[in-house]
Design brief:
Largest interface: A-B, 69 and 81 residues
Low-confidence stretches of chain B: 23-29
Mean pLDDT of chain B: 86
Number of strands of chain A: 18
Helix content of chain B: 25-40%
Distance between the termini of chain B: 31 Å
Strand content of chain B: 25-35%
Number of helices of chain B: 7
Structural class of chain A: alpha+beta
Largest sheet of chain B: 7 strands, mixed
Number of strands of chain B: 9
Radius of gyration of chain A: 29 Å
Structural class of chain B: alpha/beta
Oligomer: heterodimer
Strand order of the largest sheet of chain A: 13-14-15-16-17-18
Helix content of chain A: 25-40%
C-alpha cells in the first residue's frame, strides 16, 4: 500500500519542526514475528548498512539505491517482493528517517512508503506506536540493551502522562510547544517529541556482520618519528580509501591503534566533520593529530579502522560563492588547532546571558543556506546601512579586564591612570553611565558592576566598569 | 611581437603577468572588489576593497579601525562569503561585532595570545586554504617594533598567495605596514563622537562618525 500523504498547513497547534525528510537519507524498516535471520537476509540483499532493533525489526540504509531501483516507492516495492519471496507477513516501511520507517511499520500491516512530509504522515498514528518503538530500544546513543529497557520503563511513565493530558496521536505530541514541554518533562520530553516527529536521535550503528574497513601492518623495525609513520599510514589508507569508494562510502571516523614497544596500545579516534575518503586528507589529519598527541614510545604495529558512512554528493551552484570544502576546512582546523589550540579557533556564538563577554567557541562550519542577518551592511539590501560614515563603535576587549586607578568626583569618573605602557590615560572629557548590570548571584560566578563609556582628552574611547563586589575599577576595552 | 606575446604567455602561465604594466590594464570596471558597506568609503575606493590584494586599515587608537573592519566582514558574510579574523592579541568582541551586523557563524576567529609570529603562521594557513572572502590580520595591539621585525618579504609572500584569487586580505594596524601594488590603505583619523540623550545620567555613546582617508592604491 502506498500511503497517500496530504499536507495541511492550516492544521491546528504549533508549527512542526523542520521536516526530517529534508535530510538526504532514505531508510527502510522490515518488521515481522519471523526469526530475525530472515529479515537480516532480506536486508543484506539491499544494503550493507543494516541495524537490528529487538527481535523482529531491522532497519537498512537504502539511500544509494535510487539510481538502481528508482524512487522511494520503487525501492519499497522491490523490498516487499524480496520479503514475500522469503516469508509472508513481513511489513515494509520506507521513509527519510529510521525512526519514521520504524513507526510506520508498527502502525501499518503492509508496505508503506513516505518520501516527503514525514511529520504529516506520522501525525495520525497512535501514541502506542511510540511505546512499541521505545520497547525495542536502540533510540538513544550508546545505550546497551539493559539501559534501553530501563529507559523504556521510565519513558513509559512519560507516555502515560501524555495520555492523561488528553493526547492520543503523535501529531498531538509533535505539536506541543517545545519550551513548555521542556519545562515540564525536561530533555527526555523533548527527545520523545523528536521521536514523535520522526527524527532520528542517534546515528545508525551497523550490525556487527557488516564488513569492516580495517587494515593493519606489523612493522619490521619500530618507528619513533612521524615521518616514516606517514608512509605507513599512506600504505594503509590507500586500500581502505579504494574499498570505501567501491562501497560508495566515506569515513565518518578514524580509529588508529598503535601497538607500542612497551607492550601498550596507544589509540586515537578522529571524528570527521563529514564523510570523506581522500587518503591524503585522512593522512594529514592523522599526522596532525599525532603531532599534538604523540605516542609515548616507538611503534610496533599500526592498525587503522574507518567507520563508514554514506558518501557525500555535492552539487555546486553557479549563483553562490564557493566556500572552503569540508576536506579543506577539516585540514585547516586541524592545523590551526595544532598551532593555537583547539579551543582558540572556530566560530564565536553568543550565549543567552547578560554576562559581559558571554560567548562560546563552536566548530567553524559556514553554511550558505543560512539566512543573512538582519540589517546587513550591503548597498541595495532591504535594510540599507546609514548613508554616512557614522557607525556604532566596536569594542576591542581586554581579556581579562585591566585594573585601573580612577579619580571620581560627584560619583562620576573624571580621570584614569593605568600602570602599563601603551595604555590610554588622563582626564576624561565626556562620559556616559553608569549602566548597572548584575547576575548569576545564584552561583559562584556572580557579577555586579557599573559600566561607563568615557572619552578621554587624548581621544581614546574606553569602557570602564566599577566592580561593586571588589570595589575596584577596570578597563574592559577600547572602542575602535 | 611574437616573442613578446610568447613572453607574456609564459608570465601569465606563471601568474607573473601583473609585473607587466601593459599586460594587465587596471580599470575600475575590471577590478573585483569586496564592498565594505560604508557608502562614502566604498565610493572613495571605487567599489570596495580590491580582491586578490593585500590592503590595510590603519590609524590611532579609537579611530574606528575595528569598526571599518567589522563592516567589511559583515558585508562579506551577508553576501554568503566565509570570513576569517586572525586576532593576534585576542581583542575581538563578538557581541559588538554582531551588533554591527556580522553573522558570526560565517566567521573563523583565530585567537592568539599575543605572539605575532604564530599568528602570522595562522594567517598563512588560512590564506593557503582559500575560499574565504575577507581575511583580516589584526596587528593593532602589537607594538610597532615587533611588527617592523617581520621581513618585508613576508608581506610580498602573502600578497603572492592571494594574487588572482577572490580573497581580500586586510591588515589592521596602528601605522602603515604593507599593501600589495593593487591594494589600498585606509587611514583613519580621530572620529567625531555622537552622544545621545541629555543630562549626565541619560547620555549614551550612540556612534562614531568615521573620518577615513584612502591613501594610494590604483583607485
Amino acid at each position: 500500500m502506498l500511503l497517500p500523504i496530504s499536507h495541511d498547513p492550516c492544521r491546528g497547534g504549533a508549527p512542526l519542526a523542520a521536516d526530517p525528510a529534508a535530510a538526504a537519507g532514505l531508510f527502510a524498516c522490515l518488521r515481522s514475528t519471523r526469526p530475525p535471520g530472515i529479515l537480516m537476509a532480506v536486508a543484506r540483499e539491499f544494503s550493507p548498512r543494516v541495524e537490528r532493533h529487538g527481535a523482529g525489526s531491522v532497519v537498512l540504509d537504502v539511500s544509494g539505491l535510487g539510481r538502481l531501483l528508482g524512487d522511494a516507492a520503487a525501492i519499497g516495492e522491490s523490498l516487499a517482493r524480496a520479503a514475500d519471496d522469503r516469508a509472508s507477513g513481513i511489513r515494509v516501511g520506507v521513509a527519510p528517517t529510521r525512526t519514521a520507517a520504524r513507526l510506520l511499520t508498527i502502525a501499518h500491516p503492509r508496505l508503506v512508503v513516505v518520501a516527503r512530509e514525514t511529520a504529516a504522515a506520522l501525525a495520525p498514528l497512535s501514541l502506542r506506536t511510540l511505546g512499541t518503538l521505545l520497547d525495542e530500544g536502540g533510540w538513544v546513543p550508546g545505550d546497551s540493551r539493559a539501559q534501553a529497557v530501563a529507559r523504556a520503563r521510565a519513558t513509559t511513565a512519560r507516555l502515560e502522562a501524555f495520555h492523561r493530558w488528553g493526547l492520543t496521536t503523535l501529531g498531538d505530541m509533535a505539536a506541543l510547544p517545545a519550551d513548555a514541554l521542556a519545562e515540564r518533562m525536561g530533555q527526555e520530553g523533548l527527545l520523545l517529541q523528536r521521536l514523535a516527529r520522526g527524527a532520528d536521535v542517534a546515528p545508525l550503528v551497523p550490525d556487527p556482520g557488516t564488513p569492516r574497513f580495517l587494515e593493519s601492518i606489523d612493522l619490521e623495525w619500530p618507528i619513533d618519528t612521524l615521518e616514516p609513520l606517514s608512509f605507513v599510514l599512506a600504505r594503509l589508507l590507500d586500500p581502505l580509501s579504494a574499498a570505501l569508494e567501491r562501497a560508495d562510502r566515506g569515513a565518518a571516523a578514524l580509529r588508529l591503534d598503535l601497538r607500542l614497544v612497551n607492550r601498550t596500545t596507544f589509540a586515537r579516534v578522529l571524528q570527521l566533520p563529514a564523510a570523506m575518503r581522500d587518503p591524503r586528507v585522512l593522512r594529514t589529519l592523522l599526522l596532525l593529530d599525532l603531532e599534538s598527541h604523540p605516542p609515548p614510545a616507538a611503534i610496533d604495529v599500526v592498525t587503522l579502522e574507518l567507520d563508514p558512512a554514506p558518501a557525500r554528493i555535492i552539487q555546486y551552484s553557479l549563483l553562490e560563492r564557493a566556500l572552503p570544502s569540508v576536506e579543506t576546512l577539516a585540514t585547516l582546523m586541524a592545523r590551526l588547532g595544532a598551532l593555537v589550540g583547539d579551543t582558540r579557533c572556530g566560530s564565536p556564538a553568543l550565549l543567552d546571558t547578560h554576562r559581559p563577554d558571554g560567548f562560546e567557541m563552536r566548530r567553524f562550519a559556514p553554511d550558505t543556506r543560512s539566512p543573512a542577518p538582519a540589517g546587513p551592511r550591503v548597498p541595495g539590501a532591504p535594510a540599507d546601512p546609514p548613508a554616512g560614515t557614522a557607525r556604532p563603535p566596536v569594542l576591542r576587549r581586554f581579556r581579562p579586564p585591566i585594573a585601573v586607578r580612577v579619580g571620581v568626583e560627584r560619583g562620576r569618573p573624571v580621570r584614569i591612570a593605568i600602570d602599563r605602557r601603551g595604555m590610554p590615560g588622563g582626564d576624561i572629557a565626556q562620559q556616559a553611565g553608569p549602566w548597572r548590570t548584575s547576575g548569576a548571584w545564584w552561583d559562584g560566578a556572580a557579577w555586579d558592576r557599573d559600566e561607563w563609556d568615557v572619552a578621554l582628552v587624548d581621544g581614546s574611547l574606553c569602557r570602564l566598569f566599577h566592580d561593586r563586589q571588589l570595589d575596584r575599577w577596570f578597563l574592559e576595552g577600547l572602542f575602535d | 611581437m611574437g616573442a613578446r606575446a610568447e613572453l607574456e604567455l609564459l608570465l601569465k602561465a606563471s601568474r607573473l603577468d601583473v609585473t607587466l604594466t601593459s599586460a594587465a590594464p587596471w580599470t575600475h570596471e575590471a577590478r573585483a572588489v569586496a564592498p565594505i558597506g560604508i557608502a562614502p568609503l566604498d565610493a572613495a575606493l571605487a567599489g570596495g576593497l580590491p580582491r586578490g590584494h593585500l590592503s590595510e586599515i590603519v590609524g590611532p587608537r579609537s579611530a574606528g579601525r575595528t569598526t571599518v573592519l567589522a563592516a567589511a566582514l559583515s558585508a562579506a558574510a551577508a553576501r554568503g562569503e566565509a570570513v576569517a579574523l586572525i586576532d593576534t592579541a585576542d581583542r575581538f568582541d563578538p557581541a559588538s561585532a554582531e551588533t554591527a551586523g556580522l553573522d558570526l557563524s560565517k566567521l573563523l576567529w583565530i585567537r592568539d595570545t599575543g605572539d605575532p609570529v604564530r599568528a602570522l603562521k595562522g594567517l598563512n594557513l588560512v590564506l593557503h586554504a582559500g575560499g574565504f572572502g575577507v581575511v583580516a590580520f589584526d596587528l593593532a595591539d602589537v607594538p610597532a617594533p615587533e611588527v617592523r621585525r617581520f621581513p618585508h618579504t613576508t608581506w610580498l609572500r602573502i600578497a603572492r598567495v592571494i594574487e588572482g584569487s577572490q580573497t581580500t586580505a586586510v591588515l589592521l594596524g596602528a601605522e602603515r605596514i604593507a599593501r600589495s601594488p593593487g591594494g589600498v590603505t585606509i587611514a583613519l583619523e580621530a572620529p567625531r563622537l555622537c552622544w545621545s540623550g541629555t543630562g549626565d545620567r541619560a547620555r549614551l555613546l550612540r556612534a562614531v562618525d568615521l573620518r577615513p582617508r584612502v591613501v594610494g592604491g590604483r583607485v
